[in-house]
Amino acid sequence: MSRLIIVTGGSRGLGLAITRALLEAGYSVATCSRSQGEALPAMMEACPDRLFWQEADIGNAASSQAFIDAAVRRFGAPWGLVNNAGIAREGILATLPLVEVDLLIQTNLSGAIQVARAVLRHMLSRPGGGRIINISSIIGQRGYTGLAAYAATKAGLDGLTRALAREVGRRQITVNSVAPGYLDTEMSGTLSGGQRDQIVRRTPLGRLGTADDVVPSILFLLGDGARFITGQTLTIDGGITC
Ligand SMILES: NC(=O)c1ccc[n+]([C@@H]2O[C@H](COP(=O)([O-])OP(=O)(O)OC[C@H]3O[C@@H](n4cnc5c(N)ncnc54)[C@H](OP(=O)(O)O)[C@@H]3O)[C@@H](O)[C@H]2O)c1
């Protein structure tokens, strides 16, 4: 029986690339998103025994709990969680509507904490350890004008990583963050041409990242070779924060 990894937000972007790579590596994957997206149906047809998707809004605790319960009923207790689903809302804080601030916190932070809590209850129910990876962002470390509330949620995830690593380490469950730089996904579609040029100029490796630049590190952290790495934030950004 292959190990189950729960990936939130697997319908597109980084989550889709992670889902595809995990299936190729032999894992089973349970993923959720608010809509199914274009790529998942064909992947589910190709891998009906190892890929499960359910519509869920991680900003809603009952909805994400229902997804995790369904995934566990299907595959058993998960080996790993990749807390990937997230949203970005741009705007200077003074004028960003409170409803957008609440949505960011509810989705990126409260949602991720709730998912980690629900998954941990299953991981702790059986021996053997496990893996939790929170996808944060260099914005949470360095900030970016117009992304203050988003940055707060991502810095919060890094705090979650450090505290939870201490809490569950004795059970051989590792908890790490992966903090990408600017990735060429739908989320970064709001960057202007000028902003993209500036990011490229400031990046030692001279380009925006892709999901495929990040995926190998996630596979590594989920694997047995990363068993003594916990509480860390791995920055993958082409050097822009170095
Ligand atoms: N792109 C970047 O430059 C960048 C940089 C650093 C970190 N990150 C982080 O990397 C992660 C993935 O980003 P991405 O660029 O791949 O974003 P993306 O292309 O917008 O994809 C986001 C994924 O999350 C899902 N999602 C969003 N809100 C959700 C909700 N409330 N409930 C369930 N699923 C939800 C989306 O599906 P639905 O919309 O259908 O729900 C989609 O599958 C995010 O946490 C992001 O903050 C991205």
Describe the structure.
The protein has 242 residues and is of the alpha/beta class. It contains eight helices and seven strands. A seven-stranded parallel beta sheet has the order 3-2-1-4-5-6-7, sandwiched between helices. Strand 1, helix 1 (13-24) and strand 2 form a beta-alpha-beta unit. The radius of gyration is 17 Å and the shape is globular. The relative contact order is 0.14. The site of NADP nicotinamide-adenine-dinucleotide phosphate has 29 residues, from helix 1 and strand 2. NADP nicotinamide-adenine-dinucleotide phosphate (NAP) binds next to helix 1 and strand 2.
Summarize the SSE layout with pairings.
Layout: E1 4-8, H1 13-24, E2 28-33, H2 40-46, E3 51-55, H3 61-75, E4 80-83, H4 98-123, E5 130-135, H5 138-142, H6 148-168, E6 173-180, H7 193-202, H8 211-222, E7 233-236
Parallel strand pairs: 1-2, 1-4, 2-3, 4-5, 5-6, 6-7
Helix pairs in contact: 1-8, 3-4, 4-6
NADP nicotinamide-adenine-dinucleotide phosphate binds next to helix 1 and strand 2.
